[in-house]
TrEMBL record:
Family: Belongs to the acyl-CoA dehydrogenase family.
Keywords: Electron transport, FAD, Flavoprotein, Iron, Metal-binding, Oxidoreductase, Transport
Taxonomic source organism: Sinanaerobacter chloroacetimidivorans
Protein name from the UniProt record: Acyl-CoA dehydrogenase family protein
GO molecular function, one term: flavin adenine dinucleotide binding
Cofactor annotation: FAD
Length: 383
């Protein structure tokens, strides 16, 4: 397999990098400290077209490919992991399922403003008893003729409460397992739809994460996404693509920490020479660079497969699992290179070390990624 990015990809990288350096970097310390969402920066991302990168122009998108999208998430996360996941959750989880499964009316009403960045999207799958076992959904949507009555709740929802549009999964036919789950488009502000806990997280603190509570929310029939009973497959297909976004986020966080560590290793002198020229540190840097290069190939090649409508579920799981695992290793090594200085609040490697951890947990823990990868190789277990 030959793989390289194009000039267009690299031009986009330059543009997003400049934006991240100029508009986001100066805010990262305060956003992390105060749990602040970058409202203005996200609005600017919308104006730049970056909230709709992989969607066609007639949907309000940029009409670029999945690699472009991965590069944009990577470049935002290189400066701020929280902003990286805001874009990833909005694009892959909040917008893509409407693009892929929405009817014309749904696309007109919801997809266009999402792609233009006029609205922010989110994805409501996880529940207290349905985390890794996403099929354990307990939220219900009861058919009441012209609407469904939605009851239950979701936890750990990225972009809530900032998001306007939520793709929510609920049981429409009980007792038949995952085939009884359906997907709905739910709007913020509807009666009975409230936000519970706003989580105080270890990392990615510039992103918002909240609990969704549904109390007799009337969801119009026309907001059923896809067919009744198709919800679990919609969720799984969405996550296949979403994992490319999280892999790109992990890659970006690791890249940011790596660059910090290289700069420091060239400046910091101990035993008469910069520490980067001591073998203990130079070998670390060599290993970090190799891991980053491997992760980048995995991420971009999964994106390329998706772009070309080829099977990519295993490859996106591999990219997510590997990039997240190495993000932990690389940020850990970066902090180690900084020594005591890196352990101080205000140091970017300290924040990046905390930001990296979530990438091994959300959009399917890395244990779940290994289940997905193994099931692609081995198939279903014998009965
Ligand atoms: N695409 C389409 N359909 C799929 C699919 C896929 N990738 N994977 C499974 N399915 C279908 C299967 O074909 C099967 O359908 P049939 O019965 O018709 O054949 C059905 O779904 C059930 O499949 P499984 O028996 O494999 O399902 P399972 O219950 O064993 O679960 C799992 C599989 C992979 C473990 C799944 O539960 C899973 O992905 N769990 C992790 C959940 C997750 O990633 N949550 C993330 C929440 S979002 C988030 O974290 C975002 C954020 O904050 C940024």
């Amino acid at each position: 397999m030959l793989f390289s990015t194009t000039q267009q990809h690299e031009e986009l990288r330059t543009r997003v990098r400049a934006f991240a350096e100029e508009e986001i970097k100066p805010l990262t310390f305060l956003m992390d400290k105060e749990n602040q969402f970058p409202d203005d920066a996200v609005a600017k991302l919308g104006k730049m077209g970056l909230m709709g990168i992989p969607f066609p122009a007639d949907s309000g998108g940029m009409g670029l490919d999945m690699i472009s999208y991965a590069i944009a998430v990577e470049e935002l996360a290189r400066v701020d992991g929280g902003t990286g996941v805001i874009l990833s959750a909005h694009t892959s989880l909040g917008t893509w399922p409407i693009f892929a499964f929405g009817n014309e009316a749904q696309k007109k009403k919801y997809l266009i403003p999402l792609c233009k960045g006029e609205k922010i999207g989110a994805f409501g799958l996880t529940e207290p008893n349905a985390g890794s076992d996403a099929g354990g959904t307990e939220t219900t949507a009861v058919d009441k003729g012209d609407h469904y009555l939605l009851n239950g709740g979701k936890i750990f929802i990225t972009n809530a409460p900032k998001a306007d549009t939520y793709v929510v999964f609920a049981v429409t036919t009980p007792d038949i397992g995952v085939r009884g789950i359906s997907a709905f488009i739910v709007e913020k502000g509807w009666k009975g739809f409230e936000f519970g806990d706003h989580y105080d997280k270890m990392g990615i603190r510039s992103s918002s994460t909240a609990e969704l509570i549904f109390n007799d929310v009337k969801v119009p029939k026309e907001n059923l996404l896809g067919k009744e009973g198709q919800g679990f497959k919609i969720a799984m297909a969405t996550l296949d693509g979403g994992r490319i976004g999280i892999a790109a986020q992990a890659l970006g966080i690791a890249q940011g920490a790596f660059e910090q560590a290289v700069t420091y290793a060239k400046e910091r002198v101990q035993f008469g020479k910069p520490i980067g020229f001591q073998q203990a540190i130079s070998f670390k840097i060599a290993d970090m660079a190799t891991k980053l290069r491997t992760a980048r190939f995995l991420v971009y090649s999964a994106a390329e497969l998706k772009e070309n409508h080829m099977p990519f579920g295993m490859e996106s799981a591999m990219a997510k699992q590997y990039a997240a695992d190495i993000a932990l290793e690389v940020t850990n090594d970066a902090l180690q290179i900084f020594g005591g200085t890196g352990y101080l609040k205000g140091m970017e490697v300290e924040r990046m070390y905390r930001d990296a951890k979530i990438t091994t947990i959300y959009e399917g823990t890395n244990e779940i990624q290994r289940i997905v990868i193994a099931s692609h190789i081995l198939g279903k277990p014998p009965k």
